């Protein structure tokens, strides 16, 4: 089973559109969002996903009522941590901030976190797969990314979206 993972959209609608297109192109059967929509403006492009979406809130989601309203026709959104059982039985634990899952990883196959805006994948001593998809918005490091998880065999890949241009040099200099 192929699972798309993204997080930290931070209102960057164009990059959410790019993420959705990538998930659809790769034939994802489930997509997980690990927090920080920021506002409902990034929700409408999610309607183009060709598979179910499950999302959790992050620490910068200011208009939760608006986000919940928009997500009603797309998929569930809740407060982390969330445990998801994929159609093939893969158990995924997801939260925006890693500390929200402290002591809860036993019995899961995949642990999804975000918050740092830095993409990473790895395994612990018990073989659990840890995935941080990086930042879909790209505002912090200008290198937006998502992740793709294959459940059989269990593996993850970071997928880079088009890099954001640097601001003009004179923009960063003070007068």
CATH top level class name: Alpha Beta
Strand line-up of the largest beta sheet: 4-3-2-1-10-11
Number of helices: 3
E-strand count: 11
Helix content: 10-25%
- Rg estimate, integer Å: 16 Å
Tell me the series of helices and strands, N- to C-terminal: EHEEHEEEEEEEEH
Low-confidence stretches: none
Structural class: alpha/beta
Using the alpha-carbon principal axes, give the shape. globular
Strand content: 25-35%
The CATH topology is: Purple Acid Phosphatase, chain A, domain 2
Mean of all residue-level pLDDT scores: 95
In terms of quaternary structure, what is this? single chain
**Which CATH architecture is right?**
4-Layer Sandwich
Biggest β-sheet: count, sense, barrel? 6 strands, mixed
Explain the overall architecture:
The chain has helices at 13-25, 64-71, 169-172, and strands spanning 2-6, 30-34, 53-56, 77-78, 82-85, 91-94, 110-112, 119-123, 129-133, 145-151, 154-160. It contains three helices and eleven strands; from the N terminus they run E-H-E-E-H-E-E-E-E-E-E-E-E-H. It is 14% helix and 29% strand. The strands form two sheets. The chain has a six-stranded mixed β-sheet with strand order 4-3-2-1-10-11. A five-stranded mixed β-sheet has the order 5-6-7-9-8, with no helix packed on it. It has one domain: 4-Layer Sandwich (Purple Acid Phosphatase, chain A, domain 2), CATH 3.60.21.10. By secondary structure, it is an alpha/beta fold. Strand 10 and strand 11 form a beta hairpin.
């Amino acid at each position: 089973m192929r699972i798309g993972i993204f997080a930290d959209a931070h209102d960057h609608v164009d990059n959410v559109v790019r993420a959705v297109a990538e998930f659809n192109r790769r034939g994802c059967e489930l997509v997980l969002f690990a927090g920080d929509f920021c506002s409902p403006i990034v929700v409408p492009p999610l309607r183009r996903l060709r598979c179910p979406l499950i999302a959790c809130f992050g620490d910068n989601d200011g208009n939760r009522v608006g986000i919940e309203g928009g997500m009603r026709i797309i998929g569930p959104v809740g407060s982390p941590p969330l445990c998801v059982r994929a159609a093939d039985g893969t158990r995924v634990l997801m939260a925006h901030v890693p500390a929200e899952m402290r002591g809860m990883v036993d019995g899961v196959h995949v642990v999804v976190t975000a918050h740092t805006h830095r993409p990473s994948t790895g395994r612990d001593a018990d073989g659990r797969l840890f995935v941080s998809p990086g930042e879909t918005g790209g505002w912090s490091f200008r290198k937006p990314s998502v992740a793709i998880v294959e459940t059989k065999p269990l593996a993850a890949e970071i997928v880079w979206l088009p890099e954001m241009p640097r601001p003009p040099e004179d923009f960063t200099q003070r007068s």
